[in-house]
TrEMBL record:
The chain crosses the membrane at residues 21-43, 63-85. This is Cytochrome c oxidase subunit 2. Belongs to the cytochrome c oxidase subunit 2 family. It catalyses: 4 Fe(II)-[cytochrome c] + O2 + 8 H(+)(in) = 4 Fe(III)-[cytochrome c] + 2 H2O + 4 H(+)(out). Binds a copper A center.
Length: 226
């Protein structure tokens, strides 16, 4: 969960988010090198006292400042395209979770198990315990098994919503009449928080997402208890 002291991305809890963090670091490294080089050239030009009165063209330097940005863009584009295809890749998911956005709560359906569905509302301040987080805890948290391929199918019942959990690298738009899908593979147990990321009305800020990742054996016990 994001805290006041966070200046970088949250710790990755899925294989997809790990790749997103690697790509972020890769791109920042390239941008830092470009920034340092441009600053060095600008300072050198400002301190340069030599003047070439007869300079009309420089085909060599023009070729260089065309090729170098093109090569730089290739180094950014190739990992980006690889990541883009990884996001859409779906490898025989073990479980399907259907998410339905409402004003202003979420509904969850476990399609692989009969009659397991529930609504998830934000807990009001009066019901919070000392260890729970204000505006982030819900009455019915979503539970998923770790180290399993999970398909998330997202839609909405009324207006536009967006189901987003930053630590999983997951953000899927919930559109009425349309079913969007994504996939996650959670790599460690724990509780992850998210929020609706599409303005959906007066209580848009009060429909949090709370997802708990547990081992597969515990997940099967939880399913039997429902």
């Amino acid at each position: 969960m994001a805290t006041w002291g966070n200046t970088m991305t949250q710790d990755a809890n899925s294989s997809l988010m790990e790749q997103l963090v690697f790509f972020h670091d890769h791109t920042i490294m390239i941008l830092s090198m470009i920034t340092i080089m441009v600053m060095y050239i600008m300072i050198s030009l400002m301190k340069n006292v030599f003047i070439n009165r007869y300079l009309l063209e420089g085909q060599t330097i023009e070729l260089m400042w065309t090729l170098l940005p093109a090569i730089t863009l290739i180094f950014i584009a190739l990992p980006s395209l690889r990541l883009l295809y990884m996001i859409d890749e779906m490898n025989s998911p073990s479980i399907t979770l259907k998410v339905i956005g409402h004003q202003w709560y979420w509904s969850y359906e476990y399609s692989d198990f009969p009659s397991i569905e529930f609504d998830s509302y934000m807990k009001p301040n009066s019901e919070l315990s000392s260890m729970e987080t204000r505006l982030m805890d819900v009455d019915n948290r979503t539970v998923l098994p770790m180290n399993n391929q999970v398909r998330i199918m997202v839609t909405a019942a009324d207006v536009l919503h967006s189901w987003a959990i930053p630590t999983l690298g997951m953000k899927i738009d919930a559109i009425p009449g349309r079913l969007n899908q994504g996939n996650i593979n959670i790599i460690r147990p724990g509780i992850m928080y998210g929020q609706c990321s599409e303005i959906c009305g007066a209580n848009h800020s009060f429909m949090p997402i709370m997802l708990e990742s547990i081992p597969t054996e515990n997940f099967l016990k939880w399913i039997k208890s429902m």
